[in-house]
Design a protein that fits this description.
The complex is a heterodimer of chains A (387) and B (88).
Chain A lengths: L3 E3 L8 H4 L9 E11 L2 E14 L3 E14 L2 H6 L3 E16 L2 E12 L2 E14 L4 E14 L2 E2 L2 E2 L10 E17 L2 E14 L8 E4 L7 E4 L6 E15 L3 E12 L4 E13 L3 E12 L27 E14 L9 E19 L13 E16 L1
Antiparallel strand pairs in A: 2-3, 2-21, 3-4, 4-5, 5-6, 6-7, 7-8, 8-11, 9-10, 11-12, 12-15, 13-14, 15-16, 16-17, 17-18, 18-19, 19-20, 20-21
Chain B lengths: L7 H22 L15 H4 L9 H12 L14 E3 L2
Classes of the chains: A mainly beta (387), B mainly alpha (88).
């Protein structure tokens, strides 16, 4: 039993809210170790990001990312046994600066035993009004190949005997970064995506009432629509406080043709301390409605055209609290390194599902099990160098 | 049976917001006189402070976005890196 990948979103789209178009990204290297642990799932691994300028007009970056997964989650234990696997991802990004315009192009490749993903993207950013405003536009396209693996063996009967399925993705984005005052920044982002093909997980079956089963229910194949279109809009504000600190807030609204409506609110606080420490705290609240065709328990098999019990499509709300610390140092050797930082981030995630029940807890009546909750610890430890 | 698409109004709202933003931006771009920067270069000391960056550590924010995106139905407009696996 293996993972389902999600399509790769457009890497370049961050330029809309966070970037400047009159300078190239700074030369830096980050080496990160990440660990996620919660709900019977552990995902950990390294990541390396290298950025380098070439002359005054070109820069390139490359990122390697790895997930080592050990899973005994509720989805896995419901119908199969625990498993381990690895996913790797490679990102290449090229930038060209011409005047106040920054052109970017790149490619992302991700591979795991049952999922391969290729994504290409283009974006352009332009600074204007004395560099108080930066606007950006981007486009990305992804081509994925989805399969199914059972105990390390590719399932040949997957997708009616074809053995694999395809999924295609297109994303358009627009962003504005605006200096409001000498202490206040505003970022606006808009993104629309269009997806078609195999858009579900082969590992998340649906549950339906079955009077002939001892438990009172059985599992069957999910059938999701083969198209999905979503739009998201967000606003971010960041304010410089008089005692050399910063506070930020953001809001995002998302809606799609599957019926999911989601709100995300986030607040953060950054406080430099002494001369070489920076502390951070954040809180993020997320709420979503369920997909139109989602159900935790269907009245009988094939009771609808489209069915899903994927908890990503359930109704739930979540709270994430985060703390971070960063220590800056100047190594002096090698001579080309200007400075470095040692960073540790910790986030605690709590999800309350509102229509996804914990079927691993026995119940006399199917669907009367307690609602599922998820608690996870998310840690990052990374070292950064500027040169 | 699939129900009607409930969030169409949301998409119309988002599309409306985008169109309004583009129209507003367009009016500024074709305005009669050049816009004078209201925050002068020598007044940008606070804005240039690294703590004022929306994305101080892209490798870190990209990882967190990845964690959220693989567990939530929503995606996009985060102003940061996305992508990755969805974990069962």
């Amino acid at each position: 039993m293996h993972l389902r990948s999600r399509w790769l979103a457009a890497t370049a789209f961050g330029l809309g809210a966070v970037g400047r178009a009159d300078v190239l990204p700074e030369d830096r290297t980050d080496v990160l170790y990440h660990r996620y642990e919660g709900g019977g799932l552990t995902v950990q691994g390294p990541s390396v990001l290298v950025r380098k300028k070439f002359g005054d007009s070109f820069s390139a970056s490359y990122q390697y990312y790895e997930d080592l997964i050990s899973s005994a989650s509720i989805d896995v234990l419901s119908t199969a046994s625990a498993y381990k696997e690895k996913r790797t991802q490679h990102d290449l990004n090229l930038n060209y600066l011409h005047g106040s315009t920054l052109y970017s192009a790149g490619f992302i490749y991700s591979k795991e035993p049952d999922y391969k993903s290729n994504t290409g993207f283009l974006s352009v950013s332009q600074s204007m009004f004395g560099d108080l405003t930066t606007i950006s536009f981007g486009y990305s396209q992804g081509w994925d190949t989805v399969g199914e693996v059972d105990h390390g063996v590719v399932v040949q009967s997957f997708n009616n005997g074809i053995g694999h399925a395809n999924a295609n993705h297109r994303t358009w984005s627009a962003g504005v970064s605006q200096v409001i005052t000498r202490d206040l920044l505003l970022g606006l982002n808009f993104e629309a995506d269009e997806n078609d093909g195999y858009l579900q997980s082969p590992y998340r079956p649906v549950r339906f009432v079955d009077p002939f089963s001892i438990k009172g229910y059985s599992f069957g194949l999910a059938v999701a629509p083969s198209t999905r279109t979503g739009t998201a809009g967000s606003a971010q504000l960041k304010y410089y406080l008089p005692w050399h600190a910063a506070v930020d807030g953001s809001y995002r609204l998302y809606g799609d043709t599957w019926g999911i409506l989601a709100n995300t609110v986030k607040f953060g606080y950054t406080q430099p301390l002494f001369t070489d420490w920076t502390l951070e705290a954040s809180a993020r609240y997320y709420w979503q409605s369920h997909a139109n065709f989602y159900s935790d328990l269907y009245p009988y098999e094939d009771s609808q055209n489209f069915t899903s019990r994927d908890r990503e499509l359930a109704q739930f709300h979540s709270l994430t609290l985060g703390l971070g610390a960063s220590w800056e140092f100047h190594p002096g050797w090698p001579h080309w390194v200007d400075k470095g930082t040692l960073n540790f981030n910790y986030n605690r995630l709590h999800i309350n599902y509102q229509d996804f029940h914990d079927n691993l807890i026995p119940s006399l009546v199917p669907g009367d099990e307690p609602l599922y909750t998820l608690d996870a610890n998310i840690m990052q430890f990374f070292l950064s160098f500027w040169y | 049976m699939m129900h009607s698409c409930r969030p169409r109004y949301t998409q119309r709202l988002l599309a409306g917001l985008l169109v309004s933003a583009l129209l507003t931006g367009g009016s500024l771009l074709v305005g009669c006189s050049p816009v004078q920067p209201w925050v002068k270069p020598y007044e940008r000391e606070h804005l240039a402070d690294p703590i004022m960056s929306f994305d101080r550590n892209p490798i870190s924010s990209g990882y967190l976005d990845h964690v959220f995106e693989t567990r939530e139905g929503a995606r996009g407009a985060t102003g940061s890196v996305g992508g990755g696996c969805g974990c069962n």
